[in-house]
Structures are given as C-alpha cells and as structure tokens.
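Issue: ligand-bound run for alpha-D-glucopyranuronic acid - logging full I/O for the record.

Environment: standard queue, default settings, no custom constraints.

Inputs:
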Amino acid sequence: MSRPDAAGVDPAWLPPEAFRALGLRRTLIRGAGPLVDTVRGEVANACGRFGGRLVEDGGSPDLLLEVADSQRGTGSEGFVFARDGGTTTVTASDARGLLYGLFHVVRLGEAAFDGESPRETHRPATALRMLDHWDNVDVHPVMGQVERGYAGGSLFWRDGRARGERERIRAYARLLAACGINAVCVNNVNVHDAEARLLTDRIGEVAEIAEELRSYGIRTHLSVTFAAPIVLGGLPTADPVDAAVRAWWERAVREVYAAIGDFGGFVVKADSEGRPGPFAYGRSHADGANMLAAALAPYGGTVHWRAFVYDHRQDWRDRTTDRARAAYDHFAPLDGEFAGNAVLQVKHGPMDFQVREPVSPVLGAMPRTRLALEVQATQEYTGQQRHVCWLGPMWSEVLRFRLQEEACVGETVRGGIVAVSNVGDDPFWTGHPLAQANLYTFGRLAWRPDADPLRILDEWIALTFPAAPERLAAGLHRVLGGSWATYEKYTAPLGVGFMVQPGHHYGPSVDGYEYSPWGTYHFADRDGVGVDRSAATGTGFAAQYAKPWSEIYETPGTCPDELLLFFHHVPYGHVLHSGKTVIQHIYDTHFEGVEEVAEALWVWEGLADLVAPARHARVAERFEEQLRCAREWRDQVNSYFLRKSGIGDERGRAVY
Ligand code: GCU
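Outputs:
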C-alpha cells in the first residue's frame, strides 16, 4: 500500500494518495514568506502528481488559500474554512494558520470540495504542542542512543554527532505539522556530558536541525543541565541567585538566539533522579526556573521546568514516604511564584506513566502557574512498541478529567501539552507500524483536547490507508480501538502499577520493585494488596485532591474500581463495584486480556491481503511477541496471587 518516500521512510499518514483531492484542483495561494512557500510546495507537488494546477490571481480557483490580516480571533495558528459558490477557502492571519488549514483540507479529502460549508473557525486549544525526544548524542552505556526509545536510533544524533540527515528531519517535521505539533525538544531530559555542550559550542548542530523543523512551523527546544555554569562555564557554583551564574546564563542564551532566532526555550529536569538542581544551594524550584526564565524572556523563550521531583532513594521499609505525594508536596506551595515564561511540566499521573493512574493532583492545585501536561507516547510501560497499545482513550480521559468543577485538564494546561516522542530512525518511524497512531492521536488531541479519540483513530486510518476497503478500516479499528484496555487487563491490576522487570521495564516481575528504593510498591501479603493512600489511615495522598475527588478516593466504597489498589490496601475478598472480588477480578481480566490479544492477532492475520507485505509482516511478528508476553504476564500475576492468597480461580482455569 504505502511505499517509502524520498527520505527512505514510511509516508505514515501522508502518503501521496492522501493528497489526491487537493491535487486534482486549481488552487490560488495568496501570501508570502517561507511557510507560505512550504504550502505552495505541497500544493505544487500534489498537482504535479494528480493533474491540478496552481493558478494566479484573476483565475477562478477551486481552492483559495490566503493569508489575510482581517482574520480576527483565529490567532496566529488558526484558520477559517469555508466553502461557497464552488470555491473552498482557507483564510489565516498568519502563514502558520495557513499550513494547518492546508492539512485540514488534506484530511477532508473530497469532502473539502463538496457542496457548501459555512465559515468554521479552527484554532488550537493551546499554543504549545510539543514532543520531547529523549535522544542522547553519545550512546549512553545503559540507556543507548534513545532513552526509553523503541524505534531504533535517534533521528537527530548518532554515535556522538548530528546525523545531518536533513531530508528525513524535514519529512518528520511535515508529519508533525500535519497533526498539529509545533515544538520539538531535540535531546534527552537527562543531560549527560556531550549533550550539555549542545547549549554552547555545539549549538550549530542544533541550528541545522532547527532549520528543517522551522520549514513546517516547528520551534526547537533544548534540554539543559542546571549545572551548566559549572560543567561548561567553569564556575564554582550554579546557585541561581549568584550574579556570575545569572550572567553566564544570559550570555549562553544570547548566543543560542544568535544561532537560532526562533528558539523555543529550555526543558529542565532538576533535582530529579540524581540530576543537579537548586536544592543543592538551598533554593526553591521557582528560584531555579525563574533564573532561566529571566535569561530567556528578552527573546520570547520559555523554560519548561519538570515537576518529576521525588526521592528515588527511599527505604522500602518506610511506609510514611509516598512517591505519589512528592510533586504536589514540592510544587503546590510554589503556586504564583513562577515567572510568566516559566511552565511547570507535570506528568499526567503522580507516579510514572503507568497504564492506569489517577490524574496528577498538581494539575488542579496551581491556578496561578502555567502548567503543561506531559504524557508518554513512547511506550515505556505500555508494551515498548512490541505490543499494540493505542493510548488515545487514556490521554483523552486525562484531558477531559475535571479536577475542579470549573475546568477540565485540557482547559487548565495553559502552558501546553507535551509527549515524550515514540519516534526513531526506524523506517516505520515508530518501530511498531501501528504505534504511528499514538503519535498522530497525540498531535490531534493536543490541538483539540475534547476531540473524540475514536474519531481521530478513524482519521488516522483513512489517511494512512487511503481508499482502504471497509474490511481494512474496520479491522484496524478493531485491533487498535480497545488495545489500551486490553493491555491494562493483562498487566498490573486495578491501578496498582509497576510489577515490571526492573531497569528496562518490559515484561512482568510482580515483586521486581517491591524491595527497591524507587518508591513503587504494591504491598501484597497473604491477606490483601494495594497501597493505602487515604487521609484517615494511609499516606494522605487522597487529600491532595479538591472535593469531590478527595472524598471519592478516600474510601474503598467510593473509589472507582480501576484505581482501587492505587488508593487502598484491601483484602482479596473485597467486592468491587462490578460485583466481583478483587482476586476473581485479577484472574478474569488476565485471562480476558490474553484472549483479546489472540483475537486481535487473528483479525490482523485476516488483513494480510490488504496491507503491504513488509508492514503486515512487521506487525504480525510483533503480535506473536505480544501474545507470548501477555501469557507470561497472565501466568505470573495469577500464580503470584494464588500463592499469596490461597484462593483459587472460581472457574478452575490453569494457574500455576
Ligand atoms: C522514567 C524513565 C526514565 C526517565 C524519567 C523522567 O522514570 O524510566 O528513563 O528519565 O522517567 O521522566 O525523567
């Protein structure tokens, strides 16, 4: 079906066929500048392929794409779409809006040129829709080229230097723009020695990447180390109130902007998992972030300060320390202290990208701070791109969740929506070809957080497999649509999390982290399982939520089933709202999860005649591994709980 394009990679959701409707038309483009040139290039390409043409003013176009100052209320990235009297019009006040309008027309296909359509204004819900690449410049001895990367090497770096594959980066930027992403951070949040230098003497390499990304409206960001004034500048301290330190950062930022005029800003992981930060100097995280914000402010840059701060050297014997509490305890008291161009970047859950977590209470506790939501497109804990796990429904749940009555998360994250990228130098971009759906869905949800994820999935299917027969579209929908729920069924139960193999985090190990310093425990014993995070008898985490959630999560009787073991330690015989006991729920879901994987594999096998052989084979091969791994999860989890509890499966299935 789709063949690799000029850059030798899969065209993903932009195969030439997706441009057919556009390429058959006469299009008039009004406007000037590099992004308008990008739009013109796209249209010219499509016309070259399908026989339409670009027309000059005076002709009668089927499609008018124009940049016009008069478009109020669309913002710099929005556009107005209308169709009347046989002409389809996309009008934007800025070329960026025009670019997004063009891809809107591509998505609509023939429907963009059909009948009449009243004026519709489209604009993104948030100004920053970003991908963070956890890419290393040097190959890290443990984490490799891409930390938590499951799609080969980095697109940007190889063996210590920039790859310089501009065409591929441009192809990537194009895919991102087509789903609405407008910012990319090009290096890992864990900034090691080589990566630290990107900020100073190696900024030229970043500038080359930025040039390609810019051609599709994407701004480049860098992860920096808080200790840069020491490790790069030779200063004795990185204390954020020290005048020499502040002056060092000001100089560094000036040089960055001299190289990259539209540089987006910094991403910072400080005082987190051993990274340096302001705590060493007795300063707060607001002090640290604001120092960088002050250096960036004159140029319009932003600092993304991560809230992933917790004690990773905890004693498992200590039941009072609760990692889930950490981000709120550290940051909520700082609300109102962060500069206007400082964004606090918060993981969606209080722990670490588990398949099921409650929404982080930090997202509801800092009304005077610009917050960004961070999710993981890379499937660290959700099958590492060997398993099909489409995360659209999970992200949508988070974005629609109302921590307070007035607003849902999608509305409160004024600082942006960020995903850790799932892309590498793999010919399919994402290792698992179907993991492309996660990247696409992320971009579209970041643009419109209240969109129906299943409609986005169908949109992705229609673009990626143009002119797909109904059987293929329905099959793909079936394989992907419920895959997150399936993954949840065969892995850690009822929100308890982890139970993964330590270090690489793939596959089951129920007690893998139980006696570790990482703060991720399930506390299973012969009587029960789960973490008591109630205010009455537990760690008090439940009280970090506003009402009604603090009350709902406080007791097992009101806590939603799917989060029960996140919030409570209950006996195996505890009866869920579903009517099942916890132990029977564990058995049932684990058997069901494996059956669902087997069924999805069967559906996929039935699509062999409709999918290009290389793509079909790659997915089929990964499905075999998913099935093997899901069985392993099922049998280890079920056997573990049978042995702990002594309570058998009431349906008498095989448990070991
Ligand atoms: C997870 C992940 C790390 C990563 C960290 C982070 O813990 O396993 O590889 O560095 O998140 O978000 O900073």
